[in-house]
Amino acid sequence: MTAMLKVKSLESGYGKLKVLRKISMHVNPGEIVTIIGANGAGKTTLLNTIAGLIKTTAGEITLQDTDITKTAPAKIVALGCSVVPEGRQVFATMTVRENLVLGAYVQYRKHKKKALEELDAVYDLFPVLKNREKQLAGTLSGGEQQMLAMGRALMAKPALIMMDEPSTGLAPLIVKNIFRIINQLKESGNTVLLVEQNAKAALAIADRGYVLETGKIIVQGPAQDLLSNNDVQRAYLGREAI
Amino acid sequence: MTRKSNYWEQEKECMPRADLEQLQLERLQSTLFRVATHVPFYRKKLHEMNIDPDGFSSLNDVSKLPFTTKDDLRNNYPYGLFAVPLREVVRIHSSSGTTGQATVVGYTKNDIKNWSDLTARVLTAAGVTQDDVVQIAFGYGLFTGGFGLHYGAERVGASVIPISSGNTKRQLAIMQDFKTTALVCTPSYALLLADVMAEQGININALPLKYGLFGGEPWSEGMRKEIQEKLHIVATDNYGLSEIMGPGVAGECQECNGLHINEDHFLAEIVDPETLEPVAAGEIGELVITTLTKEAFPVLRYRTRDLTKLMPEPCPCGRTFQRMHRVFGRTDDMLIIKGVNVFPSQIEEVLFDIEGTEPHYQIIVEREGRLDKTTVMVEVVESIFFDQMKKQRQLIDQIKKRLATELGISVDVKLVEEKTLERFEGKAKRVLDTRKI
C-alpha cells in the first residue's frame, strides 16, 4: 500500500449545485495533510464526500487500496476512516466516557474488551477527559469538547483521521493546544487529513497542503512552500505580499 | 569504477508508479487552472479549442490539450507568457537573438528552489557528492546551462567553480590547481580539453577527475567512450531546455543507459512530428513536455523538436522515473553550434537586413578538430567585387559582427559572386552540416 487516501477528479454537490470540481489529492501514511480555503470553498463538502455522507457524482476515492467511492459511511468507518466533525458534535446528554465508548462502536460490538483498552490510550493523550469521565459532555468547555471529539474518533483505531475545522470557535490559546495535540497524533504514527480555515495554524503543523477555492484545488505543495506563497499570504494569512 | 546508486531525493526518485501518476494528475490539474486563469494566451487557446480547464479528469486527457511552440514564445516576447506578476519573478533567462527572435523565461523563488533540487538530482545520479569540486565550463549569463547546474551543485554541497566557458588554458590551469573532480561542459569541449592536456603533457592520472556531466549538444556512445578513456572519468548525459526550465529535466544514472526524466515535475509525451498523435510505447518521435510545478512560466505540451524514445522498462538503479534515449536529432532545422542553439532563420534575417547582400546564402558547419566551425557563404551584388579590397573587408566585418551579436557565437563569412550557390526547387537546403559525431 502506498497512499493512505487517494482522491481522483472528484465531483460532488447538493442536488443541482455542483460544489467540488475535479478534486485530486492524496494523503500518505504518517502525514498531516491540510486543506485550507475560505468559507464556502467546499472543504466540509470534500470531507463529507470522502466519509460517504454526500454522494459522489464523478471521480474515485480509495482508502488503503480499497475503492470507497460508493461505500456507505458506516462501512467507511469500519474500513478505518474516522471523522472529527465541524463544531465538535459531542452527544451532550451522555457522559464523557459514554461518548468515547460509542466511538469504538464498530469494534465494541464484537470485541468489548479490546475496545475498552483503547480508552486508556485516549485518557493518556487527554488526561482532562479522565478527570471529567462521568460529566455530561454538554457541560465541557469548547476546548474540552474538541478533545472529546478527537478522542471519540481515535477510539475506532482509525488508519486515517479526518478533522473538520478543529479551531472553530475556540480561543487562540486553546487552538494552540489542540494543534499541539494534532502534531502529537502524527508523532505517534497517525495519519491526519485536516481541513481548516485557520491557514497559519494548519500549515505550521502540516507536511503538505492543498488550497481549495470555489471547489477547485488551485495550488498544492509542501506546507512550508504554501506558507510563503504570495497568493496564500494574500488570501488567507492576511498579509499583503511584500 | 564502482557503480553506486546515490539519490538526491530517494522517496521521490523511487516512488511507485501509481503514486507518481496521482501526483502528476494533481499537479496537471492545478497547472491547467494556473494557465487558464493567469496566462491570456492559454485562456484564449483553450477557449478556441472548446476545452474546459475544469474538465480534465485523467492523465490521458493531456492529448486533448493544445501544443505550445517556440514561435508562441517568440510571439509573446518578452513577458507575455508569464503566469505571475513581474515582482514575483526573481530570475530571467533568455535565448540568444535580438528583439523578436529571443525566447524569454522567468522563475519565481519556488521555481529556483525546484530547479536547484532537480539539477542536484542529476548531479547526484552522475556521482557528484558534497566532497566534489565541480568545474562548470558552461556559459553563464543569460543561458540556463551554467546557472542551472551551478545552483544544483551548490545544493549538493559541492565546491563549485563558476569558470564559465572559453579560455582553455585557464580551464586546465584551474583544473589542476583547484583539484577539480567533476567537469561540466559540452562533450565536444571535453574532448578538446583532453587533446590540449595531451599536447601540454599533463598527466591525467595525476588529476583527481572522476565524473563528467555533458549536455547541450547531441553526442554518441563513441564519443562517450573516447571521453571516458581519455579523461578517466564516468561520463553521463543530461538534458534540458530553457523553455521548460534549463538543465535538470533529465539525466543519466551510473547505468549510463538512458536519461531518467524528472517525471514528478515534467509530463513527457512522444508524438509523431507529422501527425502530432502519440506514438506507440517505445517508438521514436518528438519529445513533448508539460511542466507540472513551474509557477512563473508554466507550459503545456511544449514541442521540443528533439527526436527520442521512451524506455519504460525499469532501470537497475531503482529509480522509477522513465528514461528517455539520448536525443537522436531534431525535427526542425535548428543547429547546435559550440553548444549554442542557432536557427538558420536568424542568419537569414541578418543577411537580408544588410545592404549589398542577395537573398542567397549557405551555411557550412564542420568540426575542425574538436570544435565546430561555421562559415556563412553569401552572394553579393557584382559591383562589390569591383570595389576596393577595403570595402569587401568592411562588408565581411559588418556581417560577422551582426551575426555574432545575433547568434552569440562567432562565424566566418565568405563573399561569393551572384549565382554561384546552388539553386533549389522547393525548399532550399541552406545548411551543409558535415559534422559526424
By DSSP, the count of extended strands of chain B is 21
Structural class of chain A: alpha/beta
- Intertermini distance of chain A: 43 Å
Tell me the number of structural domains of chain B: 2
Most extensive interface, residues per chain?
Answer: A-B, 23 and 25 residues
Large-scale geometry of chain A = globular
- CATH homologous superfamily caption of the largest domain in chain A: P-loop containing nucleotide triphosphate hydrolases
Biggest pleated sheet of chain A: 6 strands, mixed
Name the CATH class of the largest domain in chain B.
Alpha Beta
Mean of pLDDT of chain A: 90
Low-confidence segments of chain B: none
Biggest β-sheet: strands ordered side by side in the sheet of chain B: 4-3-5-6-7-8-9-14-13
| Uncertain segments of chain A | none
Q: Can you give a write-up of this model?
A:
The complex is a heterodimer of chains A (242) and B (437). The mean pLDDT of chain A is 90. In chain A, a hairpin with a 2-residue loop joins β1 and β2. Chain A has 242 residues and is α/β, with parallel strands linked by helices. Chain A has 11 helices and 10 strands. Chain A folds into 2 domains: 162 residues, Rossmann fold; 68 residues, no CATH class. In chain A, α3 runs parallel beside α7. Chain A is 39% helix and 26% strand. Chain A is globular, with a radius of gyration of 18 Å. With 437 residues, chain B is an alpha/beta fold. Chain B folds into 2 domains: 323 residues, 3-Layer(aba) Sandwich (Rossmann fold); 97 residues, 2-Layer Sandwich (GMP Synthetase, Chain A, domain 3). Helix content of chain B is 32%, strand content 24%. Chain B has 12 helices and 21 strands. In chain B, the strands form 5 sheets. In chain B, strands 4-3-5-6-7-8-9-14-13 form a 9-stranded mixed sheet. In chain B, strands 10-11-12-15 form a 4-stranded antiparallel sheet. Chain B is globular, with a radius of gyration of 23 Å.
